[in-house]
Amino acid sequence: MVIQTGEAVMYGVSIGIKPQNTTQLIARIKKGLPLKTFGQLCKNLAVPEKELCRILKIPLSTLARRKKSGQLSFEESERVFRIARLYDKAVELFKQPEFGRKWLKEPAWALGDVAPLDYADTELGAKEVEDLLGRIEHGVFT
Q1: In the 8-state DSSP scheme, what is residue 134?
Q2: pTM for the complete prediction?
């Protein structure tokens, strides 16, 4: 889900983030997102916690500690937001959550037959997935 804020498009509404502007979004991520954003992302992607931990590079023992504190670290928040942004963009492009979710999980030829979710486990990989979504949106398939 996307919020229009003036000229800026803000992503993250699907995990409960509703910033007024980019500066506010950055501050929220730096502070650490609430753990519920992780749970909402699991639900949106229809993946178990263990799978999302693998993609986000969060050890299960760390997730257990976060459940006690209720807060993600700055680094974990960035990774959660990275995947949430891709989910939001995929849903925006494919018009329905189930189609966006399916696209993110299936191997993509343009990504070397790796699923976009797996490819996006680094910032550079996420950028490539975002670029691929942009190419699809504009009808460029090479």
Answers
A1: H
A2: 0.88
